[in-house]
Amino acid sequence: MSASVSWDRFRERLCRVPDLGMTLDLSRMNIEPDLFDRMNGPMEAAISAMGALEAGGLANPDEQRRVGHYWLRDPDRAPEPAMADAIRRCVAELQQFAGDVHRGAIHPPNADGFYLALTIGMGGSILGPQLLDDALRTPEDPVLLRFIDNTDPAGLCRVFAELDDSLAQTLTIISSKSGGTVETRNAMREAEAAYRRLGLDFARHAVAVTCEGSTLDREAQQQRFLRVFPMWDWVGGRTSVTSAVGLLPAGLQGIDTEAFLAGARACDAATRARPWQQNPAALLALAWLAAGEGRGRRSMVVLPYADQLGLLGRYLQQLVMESLGKARDRAGREVHQGLTVYGNKGTSDQHAYLQQLLEGPDDFFVSFVRVLQQPDPEGVFVEEEITSGDYLSAFWLGSRQALTDAGRQSLTLTLPDIDARSMGALIALFERAVGLYAEVINVNAYHQPAVESQKRAARRIIDLQRAVMALLRGSGEPLSAASIAARLDQPDATEDVFHVLEHLGACTGRGVRKLGSGDEDSVGFEFREVKGRRPQ
Known about the structure:
By secondary structure, the chain is α/β, with parallel strands linked by helices. It folds into three domains: 7-66 and 261-447, Rossmann fold, CATH 3.40.50; 69-255, Glucose-6-phosphate isomerase like protein, domain 1 (Rossmann fold); 450-527, Arc Repressor Mutant, subunit A, CATH 1.10.10. It has 19 helices and 17 strands. The longest helix is centred in the last third of the chain and has 27 residues, at 449-475. It is globular. It starts with 6 loop residues before the first helix and ends in a 9-residue tail after the last strand.
């Protein structure tokens, strides 16, 4: 690629979305003109396939499951009237609930109102709310959000320590489609214990977002949570931000959820456009295909030049990598497809890894996100007639040009501002690009079989730990990892046994003590009953 980009090439490779004030500039991507011709048939077919999904076609035939997150922002497109009515009813009830919390009509038993909301979830059930909170949070928000997104005891303790005396005024939202996500369940149990320690009734502070009939739904109904809002099996976690998963915390926070849905709906309309050469999602997918040679051979570095979009890269990691990272295509052929995503924000990353992007391996392309309207604090000039925002814009242009001079590829997505509507559009744009890209490379973007294998492996370790504890408790003598594995008739699991014992020995109050040091074969472990163990 030439180090300079002509005005004609810029205009030729610029896609405008007037209804959203959004532009996509592909002038600095290595997209050869003949690729547009070669991709005409595949991209037209991909848009048609997306249309069939929106009409209610099966996305996962093995599960008989459809994909309907597009219906969440446009219920008129739902394939059945009852489904459309359920979506509208859910949105209305969410808005009513948030309004009642703000007015104090819904409040905790021992306080005048809920002023904090603790959102518990995993993956897509938390990344969307976190992104919206970080992008749209203001000092005037009626409810402040806090998040738990892991099963790390240190992280859990930190969150509850920060809430401390505010727990009485904290609403807890548990989001889990199946109700069986272990990390979410663990965090809910920890939250129950935290409320109980303060003499508070957890159920009077709790709201669930889950599928009807799930284990979480049954427990919420039995304990009489404040509310249960629906999820549906046709909404995947990574595309759930326009469902109650995202709308409930956003509405409580004070975000204009109608504008958010409207932005997503408008972007969906723009990304159904034909000819596809004027469709921003199709062009984004084309850029990914060109940069990665159709196999994801280059990573996507997400660089938004806006602090409010600092979590965008993290959000896109799941949306893109869980959707596209597949060992086999839909015909069963081994393909090992994927698109690696990383990034933080500009200008921070200029001082982090831009050096490697400029002089290291050519194994990436940069996706810049630029925001036109940004606040200028009190009109301060940091230099004569130059503001901080001027420098932010200059650093984006400088980084882009430096990459071009080094022969490295980049694209730029420009947003008019950061508000609820533009966030809805931004999220929808990447959802559609992922869907179209997956269709072209013939992988199923809407299932994640490998994630289930990790869960099964973790469950095996938990079962192993129970067996180890039972054997050690009953032995009455110190044992090594190798001897325990042999007694369990699992010699191949000796390393796992050692790590389980090492973990238990480091946890206070578990009764496992490590004896000796040095070579792992000479280290023994013993069990001593612990009095006053915390209640389960």
